Prior knowledge:
Domain Glycoside hydrolase 35 catalytic: 8-320
Radius of gyration: 25 Å
Largest sheet: 8 strands, parallel, barrel
Domain Beta-galactosidase 1-like first all-beta: 365-474
GO biological process, one term: carbohydrate metabolic process
Keywords: Glycosidase, Hydrolase
Helix content: 10-25%
Shape: globular
Strand order of the largest sheet: 4-5-6-7-8-9-10-11
Strand content: 25-35%
Family: Belongs to the glycosyl hydrolase 35 family.
Amino acid sequence: MLTVKDDQFMLNGQPFQILSGSIHYFRVPQEYWEDRLIKLKNCGFNTVETYIPWNFHEPKKGQFHFEGMADIEQFIATAESLGLYIILRPAPYICAEWEFGGLPAWLLKDRNMALRCADPNFLKHIEDYYDVLLPKLVPHLITNGGNVFALQIENEYGAYGNDKQYLERTREIYKEKGIDVLLFTSDGPDMIEDGSLPDVLTTLNFGSRVEDSYAMLDAYKPDSPKLCAEFWIGWFDSWGKEHHTRDPKDAAATLRVMLEKGGSVNFYMFHGGTNFAFYNGANQYETYDPTITSYDYDSLLTESGEITEKYKEVQKVLKEFGTIPEPVEPPNIPILPEQKVQLDRSVSLFDTLTTIANYHKHVVPMSMEEMDQAYGYVLYRTTIDRKADMEMDTSMIRDRAFLYINGEYVQTVYRNDEKKEITLSFPEEINTLEIFVENMGRVNYGKHLRDRKGIIENLWIDNQYMFHWEMFSIELEEVVLDFSRATTERFPQFYEGTFELAETGDTFLNMEGWKKGNVFINGFNLGRYWEIGPQKTLYLPAPFLNVGENTIQILELEGTKQQEVLFANKPDLG
């Protein structure tokens, strides 16, 4: 069992230094978990850490998902089979640049419920979820013969709130459900006071300035063990901004300082993985800032699991401070040769609404959450019964939308636009206004966490609210297209093609010539692309491909003349 004695960790009564790396099972194909964990152990780590995202496991209230990439027990068992210890962070909120910080979107349907505090309604939902999740973890606790030796209470709570009653209740729920291993909180060094509990281990999150961070912990809790629960050795990327990197030697040098001072560490990230489907989060400070599909993070392993120079530099440092185990050779993952795939069928989204959308009708526009929709798109439609130029306030649209009048594209609006008032010209006595809205990822951190999507309040047009709306909810959990209905070239358009493979391997879809949208391979949503970058390719892992026939579908939002996509043999993240 992992315990604390004075200023150090003890494992089964012996001093122990935690050398951990983060791998998020929900960002990595299940078939590659062993490969990534073997490489973690070969580097010199003795522990793996992962968050557990609530929205991944309970996408709809009361509907639980623990199969495939959501099989947390299999991930734990794989780590156990390799002799790795495990830190779990099942906090209801995880941040992690993950959609809504891991909270399920259906929480936002209740406008009155407060998040991440001792609101009875919020706590009841947590307990309902933990009633299902925690019994799956208990058999893997070190106290029951497993390798899970620590769990986190909440996550970076000092950067959000000060409700100690909420933190205490979370700890009580753990105890009630049989969690009897070491518990901890984690925060930035300047936020630990509000995010910690007096008799629970306080850990730190930082990327540099080791001495300063340790000093702040000593000032708050003298003689505490020094665990950097998130050692930021890279950073995430946002659309339209540069790709982040950190010098490998700099990261290794900071690690050496921690280890020389007897500190323990968890690398965030050891292996970043991918924000598949619509699971990327967003940040919002001055402006809304959605995260890209790749979560490469400039980690020790690349998004596709390749060993980096940073891996080698860190391995050198870990060798100085301990014994590196005899390396286990992971299975070889082949890379497909470059090839072009034709997409020879297309249909406008407007022509295939009956096969991809759920229909709603209401006197006012409904948000996604009010329609029990978590992700994707909504097409809103109403009638404007006058011929006039009219001012519209776009501030209630989240996040990005295409506007059409009488079937003709008029304008794109985005929540970051400085000008929220736009002028629309309605040419007929009776007009159809359509607004196609994209949810680009809910905010995952800070005061804007309650980030509802779609049209979140009725629209103010020409000094009036507009009533009586039709809505087409497009979540794309399954993409069923009817190409016989293709009658218009109006975008968004779906494109589809098939291709044959004699063997599978990893590949990277080069989206040059495509503007913005999503790619689906054999029904699996690989994630978003956007021509503004920084990433230019989408990672396509071999397990999502078939020997024999494969189907690729692309939802192109903005318009393209492309009829093909290049399967490249290397990534381009900018």
